[in-house]
Amino acid sequence: MTCIIMGTPTFRSLPKRPLTMQKAILYLGIGLMAGLLLSASITTPTHIQDNERPGPEHKFLSDMVGEFETHNSIWLTPGAKPLMIEGKATLRMIMDGRFLLSHSQMPELKQESYAVIGYNRNRKVYTMFSIDNQGCEMDYFEGKREGKGAIVLKDPLGFVQVTMKPTKKGKSNTEVVILAGDEPYVLASTDLVQMETDDEKD
């Protein structure tokens, strides 16, 4: 369909053959419809269907859902005194429990970020895409879970490591470590503390 729309202006330069053009568009439409019907009739193997559904790994991600206060420690250089910044974060499951969406803010730094965390059941890895309002890059990380504890993710070049570690109910820690350079050093450490809901306060 995109090709038809994009190609429309060029029709004026072609010989006027309205019947031929109509037939071409008709045949294209029939071909597209046949392709859609064929793809709809193909049965997906059971194991592929299972891998497309949320699994226990997604249940682990769903346990992180909530509204949080964030206590952020940021080291601008190795060994320097950290900046202590307060913020907030909202974590919720999207796409019928397939992905964890994180939205965090640090008003003092006018910083806002989003991250989408998931689990690829075919490749058996956790994945994360993240963006923020400090640049135009989209960062990608993937990794695995250490036993029943933390999720350890790295970027494709192995320069940055992100560790997401649930500590206890309502609390967790996320740590960003720079692996490039002479020695790894912690760039940021964030403690998330779940805020009480109105029901819990009552």
Task: Describe the structure concisely for a colleague.
This protein is α+β, with helices and mostly antiparallel strands and 202 residues long.
Q: How far do the termini sit from each other? A: 57 Å
- Overall SS class: alpha+beta
Oligomeric state of the chains in view: single chain
Report the total helices: 5
> How many structural units, i.e. domains?
2
Average pLDDT figure = 83
What is the CA-based Rg, rounded? Answer: 24 Å
Q: Tell me the total number of β-strands.
A: 10
| Low-confidence runs of at least 5 consecutive residues | 1-17
Which strands sit side by side, in order, in the main sheet?
1-2-3-4-5-6-7-8-9-10
Instruction: Tell me about the largest β-sheet.
Output: 10 strands, antiparallel, barrel
Could you estimate the helical fraction of the residues in percent? 10-25%
**Share of residues in strands:** 35-45%
CATH fold label of the largest domain: Lipocalin
Dominant shape: elongated
Per CATH, the architecture of the largest domain is: Beta Barrel
Strand-and-helix sequence, N→C?
HHHHEEEEEEEEEEH
